[in-house]
Structure formats: C-alpha cells, structure tokens
Amino acid sequence: METTIQTAFDDAKHIVFLTGAGVSTASGIPDFRSANGLYTQNRNAEYYLSHRYFASDPDGFYEFCKKNLYFPDAKPNVIHEKQAALTQQDRATVITQNIDNLYEEAGTKHLIDFHGNLYHVYCEKCGETVPVADYLKSRIHAKDGGPLRPDIVLYDEGIKQQNIIDAVKAMQAADLVVIVGTSMKVYPFAGLLEYRNPNAKVVAINRQELHFFFDFEMVQEDATKFFAELKVK
Fold this sequence. Notes:
Layout: H1 3-11, E1 15-19, H2 38-41, H3 45-48, H4 51-56, H5 58-68, H6 78-88, E2 92-96, H7 102-105, E3 111-113, E4 116-123, E5 129-130, H8 132-137, E6 148-152, H9 161-173, E7 176-180, E8 201-205, E9 217-219, H10 223-229
Parallel strand pairs: 1-2, 1-7, 2-3, 7-8, 8-9
Antiparallel strand pairs: 4-5, 4-6
Helix pairs in contact: 6-10
GO molecular function, one term: histone deacetylase activity, NAD-dependent
Pfam family, one: SIR2
Keywords: NAD, Transferase
C-alpha cells in the first residue's frame, strides 16, 4: 500500500466508505451483476425482486428470496472488520448497498443500510419485527397471520428518506471518501458522490478501473488485499 494512502487514513477524521457487492464476495456471497451473477444468469431477476412481483405473487417472491438471497453461513471478512474498527473509533461511516447483514455482524457502529437489510424481517399487518429464522420457515406471521417481508428496498420502491438524509450529511462532512467493491453505477446510490465535500480526498478500490467526473485516486486491486495491509490505529 502506498504511504500516502495510509497517511490519508491515519489523518482522516470523517471517513465515508461507499460499498457494494465486491465487499462481500470474499465472504462467499456472489456479486449479482458479475458474469456468473444472479442478474446475468436470470434475466427476470430484477422483476422477481420488484414490489410489483411481491404484490402479485407473494409465494413466488418468498421462494425466490429464500433460494437466492440468503447465505446464512457467510461471515464478515477483513474488509468489513477493518471498516468496522474505524467506525468504532467514531472516525468513519459506512454507507452500503449490501443487504447481507455482514456489517452488523462485524460490529459496524455508524452504518447506513442504503437498500435495507435481509435480516430485518417484519410483519406487514402489525409491524412487529420477527427473527429471520421464523421467516425462513414461513412467510406468514404465526402471531396474527400477517404477511412477513424482509426490510429491503425492492425495485419500484423508494429509498427510505432518513437513509438519504443521513447519507448526504455524511458525504458533506467527509474528509476522505473511499469507494470499495462497487462500480457506482446504480442510482440513487451513485448520486451520493454529487454531495461529497469538495475538499475530501476520494479513493476507489476496485478490481476494475473506474472513471468519475472529478479527481480521485484509483487503487486497482483486490479489496481484501488492500484492507489486510491497511493499518488501523
């Protein structure tokens, strides 16, 4: 790792990590948009993860989610752990597109699940939160017969307003923005870059080269290698 990048981490007081599927691939969770990913293998995947499908065929939606989205054996990797350590120092915020709960398992303190969390399941009838284990057994709430659903943002649903507000505030306060494991092409998440502090240093860590409309430092390598080498005070 370049000394200048390590120094940027050491000196930063308000780091924002913008992260995507590439963070969790080392934990055994596939990148859905990769060559062998869910979206590539199944052309209808986006429809199956839409609110329209959820409303029209709740049983089909439930079976699709159980089969394709849950990876209960996955554990946080070094990327989650190093980022979580920085949040525990109150020096960093993680804004993630991932819905796999691995940041929570890693003990991330300042975390914005921009697209929600598969492991937060609630009853649409009464609003009660239920254990994900119950949901994986049945999509019906045993308590009142209401339908259960994971608290994730489906296609044709809007992002939670509070998540947008919190994410924009974090970007405006950042003195270091670190993009990890995402091409930053999915909106509105990608639009967060427009709210960055103009004085913040931006570093992108990704296997594929990225291109943006502003100056940034590109680290084209495996993010697990980068974070394994990163020293956290």
